[in-house]
Description:
Mean pLDDT: 80
Strand content: over 45%
Shape: rod-shaped
Order of helices and strands: HEEEEEHEEEEH
Structural class: alpha+beta
Radius of gyration: 47 Å
Helix content: 10-25%
Low-confidence stretches: 6-10
Strand order of the largest sheet: 2-3-8-5-6
Amino acid sequence: MWRITLLVVLIPLAFWGCVNKEYSVTETYTEPGYRTDYKTEVTTEIQKEIIRTGEDLITSYGWYNQGTTSGKWGSWCVNQPFWYFNYTIPSHGITTVEITSYSQYPQIMAYDLARIEEFGRNAADDPDVQEQRYCDWLDEYNNKIAGARLMGNYSTGSDQAVLKIDTSGVRSLSIVIPGNAGGEFATFTSPMLKWADTRDKEVKNERQVAVQVPITVEKQRMITKTHSVPFWEALSGK
Length: 238
């Protein structure tokens, strides 16, 4: 009797009982991302626009320092000969001083430096006092030269040479030629100022700039799910 009862219970389970069965499906999902776009960026800058140009001869103030004293007051003011020239630069937006040289100088130095006055000797002064004054003056001169902005250091050969000195923004140009220049003074001539007046001009510039724009990206993936099927269907493999 118990066997019959067991069959009565199992036979319905075999046909009507359920089990879990796995299967794969495609799932669509989203996640944040970025897209590269380009935008136009406009910048503004101020440029100098030339509105007028010209050339002018400029006059110079110059003197020659013999550089010799009795030596009583120390070696720092003995044997320091040099030529000194100064040019006043008119106010323009852009300037260049061109000076022609015909003979060789070992060194020509250009400074952004206000005019320095020549030492004035007076024969009536006491020689010792005058020498002391000269040494004090020369010491002050050397300090000014040492503290000035050097704009150029040049040397010329035996042929004609033109020194071109950019003096834009400079109002007083000092030139020093150290050493015993002697009669070469006459060959350092024709200071010409080449100038240009300018005005400010606003210029707009455009460029393409890459920017990252946030977007939502749709993607797919395979996932495994389970569902209940009758026992006999699971056995069939369908």
